[in-house]
Design goal:
- The protein is of the alpha+beta class.
- The protein has one domain.
- The protein contains 2 helices and 5 strands; from the N terminus they run αββββαβ.
- The strands form 2 sheets. Strands 2-3-4 form a 3-stranded antiparallel sheet, covered by helices on one side.
- The longest helix has 16 residues.
């Protein structure tokens, strides 16, 4: 997961940071039929879109998994949690 500010880092650090971000996203064990997440290209954050209302919310990367879990529990009866 690459963002714009990564360009200021040396090559090895860029790879390490991008791998860490990808691991955080991949470790999210919540999948939803209603909420779709995409990564931001500007900051280490995720943009979550509600497909029913087309509203979006942006959350820091560290809060992505918990945010998805709460959204699914509150609004998405078809969401699948793989804990």
């Amino acid at each position: 997961m690459k963002i714009k500010s990564d360009e200021n880092l040396n090559v090895q650090l860029q790879e390490d940071v991008q791998e860490l971000r990808a691991t955080i996203v991949n470790n999210c064990k919540v999948h939803s039929s209603r909420f779709i997440a995409t990564s931001s290209t500007e900051k280490p954050e995720m943009v979550i879109t509600d497909t029913q209302t087309n509203k979006t919310t942006t959350v820091p990367l560290f809060a992505y998994s918990d945010t998805m879990r709460v959204l699914v529990e509150l609004f998405d009866e078809k969401g699948v949690k793989n804990d």
